[in-house]
């Protein structure tokens, strides 16, 4: 159909237009408009932020990203709008138009390489969202892949729901949400990840939604909740979400909603290349397009029509196929200008101003009501189950450790007590304290996965960072005990190190503590660089330096100052591990001296003092205590890092934002330019 001439009347006011639920095809517009007028104006006039719920407004919102050179590229261009309790706002637009960026900006989760300008107010107040103030179902389903659907939702219920609710009530709530999302037939299916097939993409999507709607958050963001779902599933999922909107503010970006799903939206925010094509009641969008000369063809889904009209990505194909068609860029400019000169736009601005003026309640952080102890217990249990089921977490490592233990046991088999055994014992202990513990790095991919899930759950306020840090350490302990006892015993007894159960237990304890230390170190690395390759390189580099400066490859007195001797030698855990193991092994043993040079008999203490320059004055137990203290310190550092990221990120974002007035000076607002040009900041 050829577009008609632009006969759009600026007096068009979508806030007085009918509700969309009864208006799916153009013919119905006229018949339902009068009936619905009253309903929508009632909604439109509800701007009292004093009521319970979240009123969100954004005004002249710009988001730009540096394009690598000295200029910036705008992703969102001066957007203005609002979302209110009891309403479902749908954000639609072609792929890449900025839907996720808008959601991220509103939820306070923009990437650090972006700059945000403009006002976002919550209940009329400038308030930083994120970390527990809202729930956000992101596009990526960051879930624990080894859990079943029931486990994932139930653990989440235990973490998020208050202690005052009984376990059976929590279980009941979890089961109900699972049923609501149509997952009752997959409750016992594991979610699955790379390498392990589990749920389908659409089912994972629904698990993510289940987890976030468990507590009925006051402000809910959903980024493409229906991706991967068939049209029936999309409708049921969206209708469940829409059914929760009473007293809640829901904003969802969505691709290709069916006409039934479209009927569930209260308001529609239509974007193209980061510009507003339309904002207002979803039911009035059809008329807006029709009045501008782009009526929805009979029997066509309106949302398909809107997206087709404003998608310029395939203009070349269209040009080849339909030579007489208006270029899409022109169509978009017409709609953008038309919207900006309409009374409805002024009305939206008036609404935003009105809502912004009324200061309502401060949105409280952290929706989690489970006690700290409950969080620790539930997270420890969940993490323990995950570690047990994830073969790569510990079991594979155990198999490699056992293989290496046999390697060590055979290469140093029955090491004896000759003069030559001194060097053999030293090398073997060094290998155990350095390389066996170094291999803990192999668990890093699993740590990164854990960190991703933690970040999502933390941002959505499911639990505190402290509970995560404690649970992560506690759940790893039983496995590390197994991993240090079995390969430790094989190595110890095959090589014939100093006899006595206490000596073996000390050996295994140092191995265990060093593995805890390396795990803690790698969690710190995962907290700083949540990138698998970079993390492994960084972790390996740090440990390489520590091993070098531990006082074995270069004896302590020969270590160059200032870096290697002070401070590295004193802070590297390898120093305390080597010296503890050496004391455990050599003290009490006697060796025949070097026949050519030294004394006839060498006492173990002399070997330590003269050959390895071990520090005396404190016992091997002090070495072990220092190592345990380091585990505590590393975990504390990990906690400080994850909590400071929470504080630093919003501060950086606030620092990166410039007041809207400045923005207007450096950027061209399309509404003020006769022909739209891509604005840029240089
Ligand atoms: N942090 C970033 N750095 C660089 N470019 C970015 C960043 N965030 C978004 N963009 C760019 O902004 C544009 C809009 O991205 P966004 O993800 O918001 O689109 P979208 O409408 O959600 O797309 P889709 O529907 O395909 O998910 C894209 O071109 C994207 O590459």
UniProtKB/TrEMBL annotation:
Localization per Swiss-Prot or TrEMBL: Membrane
ABC transporter domain sequence ranges: 56-298
Pfam hit, one: ABC2_membrane_7
Residue ranges of the TM segments: 394-416, 428-448, 468-494, 506-526, 532-555, 621-642
Keywords: ATP-binding, Membrane, Nucleotide-binding, Transmembrane, Transmembrane helix, Transport
GO cellular component, one term: membrane
SMART domains registered for this protein in UniProt: AAA
Start and end residues of each stretch annotated as Disordered: 1-20
GO molecular function: ATP binding
Membrane topology: Multi-pass membrane protein
SUPFAM superfamilies with a match to the protein in the record: P-loop containing nucleoside triphosphate hydrolases
Gene3D superfamilies: P-loop containing nucleotide triphosphate hydrolases
Main location: membrane
The family this protein is said to belong to: Belongs to the ABC transporter superfamily. ABCG family. Eye pigment precursor importer (TC 3.A.1.204) subfamily.
PANTHER family the UniProt entry points to: ABC TRANSPORTER G FAMILY MEMBER 11, ABC TRANSPORTER G FAMILY MEMBER 11-LIKE
Protein name: ABC transporter domain-containing protein
